[in-house]
Known about the structure:
By secondary structure, the protein is mainly α. Helices cover 62% and strands 4% of the residues.
Amino acid sequence: MEYGVLGVVVPLLGCLLSPASSTRPECSIMQEIEEERSQCLAELVGDNQTSGCRRQWDNITCWPEAEVGEVVVRPCPKYFRFLTTFLGNVTRNCTSQGWTDVYPAPYAIACGYDSNSTPGEEQTAFYGTVKTGYTIGHTLSLIALTAAMIILCLFRKLHCTRNYIHMHLFMSFIMRAIAVFIKDVILFESGESEHCFVSSVGCKAMMVFFQYCVMANFFWLLVEGLYLHTLLVISFFSERKYFWWYILIGWGAPSVFITAWTIVRIYFFDVGCWEEVVESPFWWIIKTPILVSILVNFILFICIIRILVQKLHSPDVGHNETSQYSRLAKSTLLLIPLFGIHYIMFAFFPDNFKAEVKLVFELVVGSFQGFVVAVLYCFLNGEVQAELKRKWRRWHLERFLGSDMKYHHPSLGSNGTNFSTQISMLTKCSPKTRRCSGFQAEFSLV
């Protein structure tokens, strides 16, 4: 009775919600219905009524026991809130022959669903655009971050604490992008619906990996903020000692929270593929650390800006130093907002507050974050550009001198100078391209 309405509602919700949520919409609906069915059947076991109409589950709504002649009014099923803001009521009469049919019928009409007025096509187009946007963003980020990682790994002169931290941040972005792609394929493109109630270990492991990558990315953004703030506040500190603390914060802390969340899900909420996060109270095990990292990074951002303003207006700062601090201020203003500062706009609002705008900021804008960080931290970095130019000149000189030696056949032993020494002397950096000081190098970001 009326079960066919699910054939209309579920596919529509699949179009509306699947690109924007980590939960397959049909699973959300079916799990919600299953919970109500289980509760209704459990209460039916203890129902001792012998006259009138007994408690009944009609595949959508649970009808309580009633006496003959009684009119029972029930609210519309909860999942209609996805389709309409008007949630009406459905009614049935208890007669001597049993329950009458639902009226007004069918459920869809009684609950305010109108296929002509529901903005299904517009919302489908919007969510499709969002999915396309974050797919493009993560793809560009993955390509740019991989190239940046290769550059920083290959050139020994770029190996330092500052770049090691950047490399860990790049890796967290890479892992997050890969996790998003895997999640989308498994949850939205595999076509399997069995995981709504019984899921494989692999599906759950994928969700654990996805949640770990997301949290690790937020924590490495926090590490970048902590490192930059430490450079400004502490004149001399052991970078090696601090670096291991940064490793523990970036990779270790997310492991603790994700492990706790996994254990809780196994023993207390082992439902589906663990993609249900917003509706679960255990979601706060993951959400709270992320919110704290966003808040701390925002506070660090304010503190850094305050320190820079004080330094720029100090009468003891000379002209040259002022120029350096101006570059520092510009670099900080460009980079710190990329450390997740845009997340502060919606971090502490309810999940349904300005949902469409929030999706654009967190999914689309957030997906391009890795690309922009790779450009600012690597491709526009003065040291990286100088090293690439030096390698390029060295390669050209090797080709030129190598071809010249083919024709002249010089004796390396007779002139007392070997070929590699000549190349090294010819390709030395000029004093202008060398780092002026350790402090300036730490902030030559753009």
